[in-house]
Amino acid sequence: MRTILRAALLCLLLPACRPDQIEHLSNTKELAVEAENWQVKRIMPADLLRATRWGGDSLTNTADRELRRILAEKLQEGGVAAALPYCRPMTFLEVDSVAKVLQGSLSWVSPRPRNPAHRATLTPAELVPTDTARRVARLSAEEFTYQRPVVLNDALCLRCHGTVGQDIKPADYALIKKQYSQDQATGYKVGDAMGVWRVNLKRAGVAELYTMKTRKIMKKRKPLF
């Protein structure tokens, strides 16, 4: 009796397992990658420092790009008088948007600032005139810092930071001194380091950036036909 029942059950199951009735998934590789991306992964201290550099680069490059773009527009529109109020990249909308995504803040300091609130003592090593120099550090369990030089790479900047009477018109410098009576940010030439960018980042923002930057993305498959 048992033999008959097994034979009957086998007859019922076999049709359901026919190869032509099995639905094969065409995107198994994509599903595997997505599953791996959703796995909880341990982020090591070195990974967080690497992400701090990525975040600092992103924020300072945005600030540098927007500063040059906006100042060029304002100088074209109305000279130094029109550009002077806009030499504050930390207040730009694009910079603020990136800072919020990264959960960070941006500032710049200099031993020869225009605004005395930005004065800081910096070592020669910190003022190496190359914007490829980077310093990243972890101040605490939840706070990371990034620093790189602010390098005068655009000759347009000399109209406010070059030599008075040569690059800066006396009338323009009078406007600068009227707003910044303790100004020391002149006498620079192209290629000089004027100070440093400083970025503070929270651990949550750094960890999220690392996760997104290292997330695997499958290339789109080319259609067969």
UniProtKB/TrEMBL annotation:
Q: Recite the lineage of the species.
A: Bacteria, Pseudomonadati, Bacteroidota, Cytophagia, Cytophagales
Residue ranges of every copy of the Tll0287-like domain listed in the record:
105-200
Q: Which organism is it from?
A: Hymenobacter wooponensis
* InterPro entries reported for this sequence: Tll0287-like_dom
Query: What Pfam families does the entry give?
Result: Tll0287-like
Q: What is this protein called?
A: DUF3365 domain-containing protein
